[in-house]
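In this section we turn from sequence analysis to structure. A common task in structural bioinformatics is to predict how a protein folds when a small molecule is present, because the ligand can shape the pocket around it. The inputs are simple: the amino acid sequence and a SMILES string for the ligand, here LARABZUK. Study the lines below before reading on.
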Amino acid sequence: MNILDKITLDKRKEVTLRKSLIPTSQLEKSVLFNRPTISLANNLKNSKSGIIAEYKRRSPSKSVINNGLNVQDVAKGYENAGVCGMSVLTDGKYFGGSLDDLLTARGSCNLPLLRKEFIIDEYQILEAKAHGADVILLIAAILSRDEIKLFSEFAKRLNLDVLLEVHNEEELHKSVMPSLDMLGVNNRNLKTFAVSLETSKSLSSIIPDEFVKVSESGISNIEAIKELRPYGYQGFLIGENFMKTDNPGESAKNFISLL
Ligand SMILES: O=C(O)c1ccccc1NCC(=O)[C@H](O)[C@H](O)COP(=O)(O)O
């Protein structure tokens, strides 16, 4: 069983429990539920840097990245650095995140926020909206084409942007549909956790032009961005490279200044 299958199995149990504790009617009453959202896709189209900076404490491939920094300081630092958007991991078991992190980020900055989560149920999209997200992630490896259609159309009705993540050509062919805004290629091999920019490069030509292309994972220097841009990438999701430092905002600022 690969790591995504393991996470998804746990996620189904978690979502069943969450649904029994907080009804959807309560989520829809959140003051954030009707706030106007900010489009990450539009920001990326109009940006020079294209950086989406992530708040990440730990991951299945790194047991500790940063435990000492609070979300508020990091969100403010990223905004000050001039990033296009912020990604907040909300999975607790494998990444040490939470919906509270998303809420805190929302209260701390005006950046478009991506709820980085393993979405397997519409309920999680309502949670995302109720906690201040502007964008949701859908992962092709754990969803059928019908689910991608159902979840992305549901998100669009809530005025959320949709970032669809793929790892290979098969996932890409299965997923392309008009209700997506951005297509993300994850450079991390989920069996070995090795990262290679070649994944983004090799899939770029088969991503239709109407989608904003995002390269995800393993981006640790500006040379990587310079290598990926000629392949049409306008978005670059960076977590560990910033979060492993004492001051992720400052680190993002220096990074952007060199682009
Ligand atoms: O980061 C992991 O180890 C991981 C393992 C299994 C599924 C997802 C995983 N990460 C989620 C992400 O997509 C990354 O946090 C994001 O792309 C940023 O990556 P990085 O810049 O390499 O921290």
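The pocket of LARABZUK is lined by residues 3, 54, 56, 59-61, 186, 188, 190, 193, 216-219, 237-241 (CB under 6 Å). As an exercise, try to locate the residues that line the LARABZUK site and compare them with your own expectations.
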